[in-house]
Amino acid sequence: MTPSQNPEDEKQKRIPYHFGEKLRQVREHKGYTLKVVAQQAGVSESLVSQIERNHVSPAIDTLLTLANVLDINLEFLFEEYRKVRPVEIVRHDQRPIVKEDEIIYEEIAKANESAKENSIESYIITLPPASQTHKGSYGHIGREIGVILQGKAKLTYEGREYFLDEGDSVTFSAAVPHHLENIGDTELRAIWTVTPAQRFVK
Question: Virtual CA dihedral for 75, 68, 62, 37, nearest 10 degrees?
Answer without folding.
Answer: 130
